[in-house]
Amino acid sequence: MLPATPDEVWRAWTEPDRLPHWFGPVLKGIPGPDVEYVLEGRGAHGDTIVCRVLTWEPSTRLRVTWRYTGETESELRLDLTPTDDGGTRLLLEHVGFGPEADPVDYAAGWHMYTDNLEAHLAGTPGVADSDARWMELMPVYAAASAD
C-alpha cells in the first residue's frame, strides 16, 4: 500500500519532474497517451529504457512496453486502486521477458524502486544506496524463484 491517493501515485509515475525523485530521469519525450519516451537506465554505462505507452488511464491503469538496453521488449503493467484509508494499492506486473533478462534482477529492482516511491510519496528520504539495497534483495528473490 502506498501513502498517497491514486492521483498522486499516477503523477509520480508519469511526470518527468517527479520520476527522478524515486526512479530516474526522463531523457527524451514526456509520458502520455500513445507516446514513446526514454528513461535513464540503472547502470553507469549509459543504459536506457525505451517505453511506449499502450494504455493510459489516469489514476487507474498504465501499460507500457519496456525495452532496456540489450534486452528484448517486455511489458510493464500498473494498476492503481484506492484504499479505504486514502492510500493506493499498486499492482505492478512486469511480463514477457526475453531470455537475456533476469526476472530475479527485475524483482529485486522493482522492490527497491517501490520502496523509493513509497518514501517519495510520504515525503521521507528514499534508499540512500540503491545498489546496496538491490544487492540485499537479490538473494531473497533468487531463493523465492528456486522454490
TrEMBL record:
<comment type="similarity">
    <text>Belongs to the AHA1 family.</text>
</comment>
<dbReference type="InterPro" id="IPR013538">
    <property type="entry name" value="ASHA1/2-like_C"/>
</dbReference>
<protein>
    <recommendedName>
        <fullName>Activator of Hsp90 ATPase homologue 1/2-like C-terminal domain-containing protein</fullName>
    </recommendedName>
</protein>
<dbReference type="Pfam" id="PF08327">
    <property type="entry name" value="AHSA1"/>
</dbReference>
<dbReference type="InterPro" id="IPR023393">
    <property type="entry name" value="START-like_dom_sf"/>
</dbReference>
<feature type="domain" description="Activator of Hsp90 ATPase homologue 1/2-like C-terminal">
    <location>
        <begin position="4"/>
        <end position="121"/>
    </location>
</feature>
